[in-house]
Amino acid sequence: MASMSSPRLPFLPARAHSAAVSVTAAATSSSSSPPPRRALKCSCASGANSVHPSSASRPPAPVVGGVGSADLNGLRAPPIPVTESPLPAYRDPHGLPRPLTSADLMGTNGETLKVAYQGFPGAYSEAAAKKAYPNCQTVPCEHFDTAFQAVENWIVDRAVLPLENSLGGSIHRNYDLLLRHKLHIVGEVRLAVRHCLLANRGVKIENLISVMSHPQALAQCEHTLTELGIEHRQAVDDTAGAAKFVAEELLQDTGAVASSLAAELYGLDILAENIQDEKVNVTRFMMLAREPIIPLVDKPFKTSIVFSLEEGPGQLFKALAVFALREINLTKIESRPHKKRPFRVADDTFSTPIKYFDYLFYVDLDASMADPRTQNAIRNLEEFATFVSILGSYPTDLSEA
Predict the structure, then answer these.
(1) Is the pLDDT of residue 241 over 90?
(2) Which domain does 228 fall in, by range?
(3) Is 239 a catalytic residue?
(4) Nearest Cα to 193, choosing from 285, 264, 103?
(5) CB of 162 closer than 8 Å to CB of 125
(6) Domain of life, per the record (predicted)?
(7) Which of 247, 216, 248 is nearest to 233 (CA)?
(8) What three-state secondary structure class fits 16?
(9) Which of 67, 280, 286, 389 sits between 20 and 30 A of 49, alpha carbons compared?
(10) How far apart are CA 187 and CA 282, in angstroms?
């Protein structure tokens, strides 16, 4: 945060008494001249700004209704008038103009922001982006990696990508991309996912022999689709992309699992609503940016970190204990194979060493990085972990999904 400087008052040189001014001159003049000032020389030879008084002082110019001055040749310059206005009065800091923030530049509803998401228009990720940044300009991307690159290359300002679902679990691809790209998690948003079975106009459920959608969506509707008599599944990259393909190809025996918005955009009929196996189906999205935000302690925050550990009994217990001992709650822990160091030797006492996968641990803390407890816990973890990275510290989404 930029530092705030206090108001600066006009600089008036101090008028020191000098022995060169006689008592007689002071008595004969009704308005005494200011005593001589010692000229100042600025020296920067040593690299530091230092000020030294010169050995020779020059007599001041007579003052007639103003402050006199003299140039380097001893020629007297005209007097500088002194206004009668008083010095600026002290102003309460609360009354000073506040610095501009990013919210002032983009609007409180995210206006003018370009936000990337994965999928075609009508995807759930687009709805999440609109919830995170109302009135933003959404930019569809073909792949998750493309959305990361769009932010890094300044094509867009933010990206909103799924991280986990209450039915299907974690989106592992995005966990891996968090380490590959140098972006920061600056927020989260939860979105209730309500799947619909879509088909072209005039097609009935009994006409369908196949359905296509994103693998997560198909998994979330597995039992319902079976009960409807649809046995075949086709996995594609995006729910809205499946709806778009069904509409463009005018398929009569294949439906799509997607949102009601996708049905509206691509002119499809909704044959069934809320077909997910569990009625409570929520996806948690992360909001990514090039720069982190400043964490606070006056409202709920989360902190996401990733770390790896040395081989040995109790290492993971020791890592989690640094948070437990400081009463920091963990809301999520996820392990992923360490791609840069896939194997570790667990036991080399045998002729053939025993090797296991080496893992990265992704952890969400129910705490802010502005909290000294969190800072101390991270420092404690760094003492024995082989790798620690803070992915972001951001406000907790308290809104209704």
Answers:
(1) yes
(2) 196-275
(3) no
(4) 285
(5) yes
(6) Eukaryota
(7) 216
(8) coil
(9) 67
(10) 16
pLDDT at residue 399 greater than cutoff 80: yes
DSSP 62: P
Say whether pTM exceeds 0.85. Answer: no
Q: Which two tokens stand for residue 79?
A: 């007097």
Q: Which of 62, 11, 72 is CA-nearest to residue 35?
A: 62
Three-state DSSP class for residue 378: helix
Name the one residue in this structure whose structure tokens are 């959305």.
Answer: 147
Known active-site residue 285: yes
Give a three-class secondary structure readout of 124-179.
HHHHHHHHHCCCCEEEEECCHHHHHHHHHCCCCCEEEEEEEECCCEECHHHHHHHH
What is the rounded distance in angstroms from the CA atom of residue 276 to the CA atom of residue 215?
13
pLDDT-based confidence at residue 52 (cuts at 50, 70, 90): very low
- Same domain assignment for residues 302 and 388: yes
Count of C-beta atoms within a 10 Å radius of residue 349: 6
> Which entry of 283, 307, 323, 374 is annotated as an active-site residue?
283
120, 285, 307, 323: the active-site residue: 285
Please provide residue 112's backbone torsions phi and psi, each rounded to the nearest 5 degrees: 75, -5
Tokens of 225: 């689709």
Measure the CA angle with vertex 255, ends 254 and 257; round to 5°: 145
At 361-379, the pLDDT tens digits run 999 999 999 999 999 999 9
pLDDT for 376-385, tens place per residue?
999 999 999 9
In the block, residue with structure tokens 């649809």: 230
Query: 203 and 260 in one domain?
Result: yes
- CA–CA gap between residue 383 and residue 209 (Å, rounded): 58
Within-domain flag for 358: yes
- Per-residue pLDDT, 313: 87
Give the integer Cα–Cα distance in Å for 137 and 130: 9
- For residues 216 and 178, membership in a common domain is answered with no
CA 71 – CA 37 distance, rounded (Å) = 13
- Dig out the tokens for 235 from the structure: 């996995």
Please say whether the beta carbons of 162 and 191 come within 8 A.
no
DSSP letter at 70?
B
Residue 135's alpha-carbon distances to 46, 103, 111, in angstroms, are 56, 13, 5
